[in-house]
Specification:
Elements: H1 3-20, H2 28-35, H3 39-45, H4 49-68, H5 74-87, H6 89-99, H7 101-120, H8 129-149, H9 155-169
Helix pairs in contact: 1-2, 4-5, 7-8
């Protein structure tokens, strides 16, 4: 069997298992049994279950982003992206809950901080509650993206990113 086919079999076994049980209950043992490979073969392709989950998510997100961002206008692109998210909420939620606990916990606290701050300085007086919540969500995802998506080099890099971020949201 070709290497690509074996890796795909592992991914397909993961997808099948994911539809049957919570992500945290998927084991390497279950994956090797389902895909009919050895443990050694699994570890040839992936470091662990989280590595497999990340591989699957990156591959899927690449496909989805290529499809959605090829739409002729932003409204259609966002609609298609959100439709994908709606249709795959169970998988996305499972990944989020199992892999990004810290990010979620931090995100909630940062969200509340920015919400309170923006309310205090009067940013919401011309916004409806859904608009205010959306504005804060945009900010929080930006804050968390900057924090987690690229490693900080040093204190100067942190200060530069904060200054840039603040100038953008003003």
């Amino acid at each position: 069997m070709q290497q690509g086919n074996t890796k795909e079999r592992i991914v397909e076994a993961y997808i099948e298992l994911e539809s049957e049980r919570p992500v945290e209950k998927i084991t390497v043992t279950a994956l090797v049994e389902r895909s009919r490979i050895t443990r050694k073969t699994f570890y040839y392709y992936f470091k662990d279950i989280y590595d497999l989950m990340e591989y699957r998510m990156e591959r899927e997100m690449k496909r989805v982003m290529e499809e959605t961002m090829s739409q002729p206008d932003p409204e259609k692109a966002l609609t298609q992206l959100y439709m994908y998210i709606m249709e795959n909420q169970k998988h996305i939620r499972a990944l989020s809950e199992s892999v990004q606990f810290m990010r979620r916990q931090m995100g909630e606290k940062v969200y509340q901080y920015f919400y309170n701050h923006l309310e205090r300085i009067g940013m919401f007086k011309n916004l409806t509650m859904p608009e205010a919540a959306m504005a804060v969500q945009i900010i929080i995802f930006s804050v968390m993206g900057v924090a987690f998506d690229a490693p900080f080099k040093d204190e100067a890099d942190v200060k530069e990113r904060v200054a840039t971020f603040m100038s953008v949201i003003r």
